[in-house]
Amino acid sequence: MTTASVVVLVLDLAGTLVFALNGALTAIRSVRVDIVGVVTLGMITAMGGGIVRDVLIGRLPPATFSDWRYLAVAGVGALIAFALGRRLDRISLSINVFDALGLSFFAVTGATKALEAGLGPVQAVILGAITAVGGGTLRDVLIGQVPSVLSSGLYAIPAVVGAAITVVAVRLGVDGLAAALLAALACFTIRMLGLRFDIDAPTPRDAPPS
Question: In the predicted model, is pLDDT for residue 15 greater than 80?
């Protein structure tokens, strides 16, 4: 396994873990469910984006089902959240941080795997963004909320930025851990700034107030 492959795998598993924590914490906070519901929502949030990514690039079965590490990491993350979620201080902040981290890691891995599959740079950026927002979108639908990708102006945009930086780095031959972390950091920073300062993308002039 090459160094680049190791970096992608580590980020992919990291994204799986933090999205599992996010999904499980969201279940604990938003809906009344038992341990099965918490773990289910955590695992769906964690693996949804990766499954969409692999299906779109023609990788079947998806890595989630062909590599036991994804299921294990998602399950462990959801169980940790179930065990500790009620004790976490400022739980809403924890949910947002985990969501931003998952968004960032999956934007990088989605774009990288799209390039490895032979897709062009524009397609890779799009797939990186889809990978990043996929799990969160499924999470929001399952708990009956408008998906963040539709209601938050700085949700898909950070993912696009992170994926674009990844594509540019690979095209310039500087792909590696430093470039991947830079792309993830850019995505994470934009997302968190949007949450901190309540920044949204421009909306239509006649749109109803949110």
Answer: yes
**Beta carbons within 8 Å of 38's beta carbon, 6+ residues apart:** 24, 27, 28, 78, 81, 82, 85
By mean pLDDT, which of 25-29, 133-137, 165-169 is the weakest?
Answer: 25-29
Tell me, what DSSP letter sits at residue 143? T
Give this prediction's pTM: 0.92
C-alpha dist (Å) from residue 28 to 35, 79, 113? 9, 12, 32
Burial of 143 (0-12, 13-18, 19+ CB in 10 A): middle
For residue 126, what are its two tokens? 């799009």
Residue 31 — very low, low, confident or very high, per pLDDT cuts 50/70/90? confident
Tokens of 158: 């950070």
**Which residues are CB-contacts of 58 (< 8 A; sequence separation ≥ 6)?**
117
Residue 188 and residue 108 in contact, taking contact as beta carbons nearer than 8 Å: no
Whether the Cβ atoms of residue 74 and residue 133 lie closer than 8 Å to each other: no
Where in the chain are the domains? Answer: 3-197
Amino acid of residue 150: L
Separation of alpha carbons 38 and 61, rounded Å: 25
